[in-house]
Design a protein that fits this description.
The chain is an alpha/beta fold and 362 residues long. Helices cover 43% and strands 18% of the residues. The protein has two domains: 171 residues, Glycogen Phosphorylase B (Rossmann fold, 3-Layer(aba) Sandwich); 183 residues, Glycogen Phosphorylase B (Rossmann fold, 3-Layer(aba) Sandwich).
């Protein structure tokens, strides 16, 4: 390649969720000889900006669409890829006007969308050259609901750096358990997700009384930034089961945290293709997760995890109890997950797939 391709990723969030984590994962393995990477947002500050800058990549905060246009022209951005509905609606026409090719990112089925969200997304899709979806479920719903053309949607599943996901030594696990007040004989059921209603924390809380009737030596570990303004933790206290829950807040040391878990759970109301599940699979954990979005593309029910209906505390309780009672099956599920992740979710391979799309566009 004679000339580097300049790529601007425009994000909607300032916190680190699945989309932001996937973008950071790609940046770690991008071909710096062929691509110049930039990240921008209409929000200011936050963990994402810090992580981007720590990688030596320029982060731009746009005050308005005019400042975005000036940046696109000044940096001669060849490709703009846009995450999130708000950023997409604002940025798609401006990026096209500035002469950039536009990639729309489909990262969730977004069941919360109203008719006017769908209409705005559909109208601004006129300026999109190609979409990259992280799941076939996302592709299908975008064709059906937003009427995006099927031949313009490419599916690339999320990937992770497999070398990072190894169980930490037992001595380190012991120190970490002591830090969080976990006893050696406690069984730990954990979720890694920012605390918000769609991630199903409340459903877990509602399932806990049934579980602890039979298993008192359980701890539920919630790792994620609180986006509920304390509402979820207050609910646990009102239910008088907060003693069984560790609210750990945002955790950057995910492989260490996952080393504490015996079971990983993600009872979301909707999803795209959760990186959190892929990370848990890489650590050899059995998975309990909602049968929504792209999750069935990761989990075969009864094979490498258990799929449940969303908003179902009863199924959460029965699934956790089943795995606690059948630890040989739980171990087998975890072993299958390691094999699947190595085969399907290596970020080195995914980075090449993304870059193939970029080169084809330019």
């Amino acid at each position: 390649m004679n000339k580097k391709i300049n790529i601007l990723s425009i994000i909607s969030a300032s916190t680190i969720g699945g989309s932001e984590k996937n973008l950071l994962n790609y940046m770690d393995f991008s071909n710096k000889d062929n691509f110049n990477l930039f990240v921008g947002s209409f929000r200011f500050g936050g963990l994402v900006e810090n992580e981007v800058k720590a990688r030596g990549i320029q982060f731009a905060s746009f005050r308005d669409i005019l400042s975005l246009y000036k940046f696109l022209k000044y940096k001669k951005i060849h490709i703009a890829q846009i995450y999130g509905l708000r950023a997409s609606i604002l940025a798609r026409p401006i990026c096209k006007l500035a002469g950039s090719r536009v990639i729309g990112r489909i990262v969730s089925v977004d069941s919360w969308r109203k008719w006017y969200h769908v209409l705005l997304d559909r109208l601004t899709s006129l300026w999109v050259d190609v979409w990259i979806s992280n799941s076939y479920a996302g592709k299908e719903i975008s064709i059906k609901r937003e009427k995006f053309p099927a031949d313009k949607i490419i599916v690339i599943h999320n990937g992770i750096d497999l070398s990072k996901y190894k169980r930490i030594p037992d001595d380190d696990i012991g120190r970490l358990k002591k830090h969080y007040g976990i006893k050696d004989n406690d069984m730990v059921i954990g979720e890694v997700a920012n605390l918000k209603s769609m991630k199903g924390h409340v459903d877990i809380i509602n399932a806990i009384p049934t579980i602890v009737e039979k298993y008192e030596n359980v701890k539920f570990f919630f790792a994620g930034e609180d986006a509920s303004n304390g509402e979820i933790e207050r609910y646990a206290k009102e239910k008088n089961i907060d003693k069984y829950i560790i609210f750990a807040g945002f955790c950057s040391n995910i492989p260490e945290i996952l080393s504490l878990f015996d079971i990983f759970i993600l009872p979301s109301l909707w999803e795209g293709l959760p990186t959190a599940i892929i990370e848990a699979m890489a650590m050899g954990l059995p998975i309990i997760a909602s049968k929504v979005g792209g999750i069935p593309e990761l989990i075969d029910n009864g094979e490498n995890g258990i799929l449940i209906e969303p908003r179902s505390p009863q199924q959460i309780a029965s699934s956790i109890t089943y795995l606690l009672e059948n630890q040989d099956i739980a171990k087998m599920m975890g072993e299958k997950n390691i094999i699947r992740v190595r085969k399907n979710h290596d970020i080195k391979i995914k980075a090449l797939e993304f870059e193939s799309v970029y080169i084809t566009l330019v």
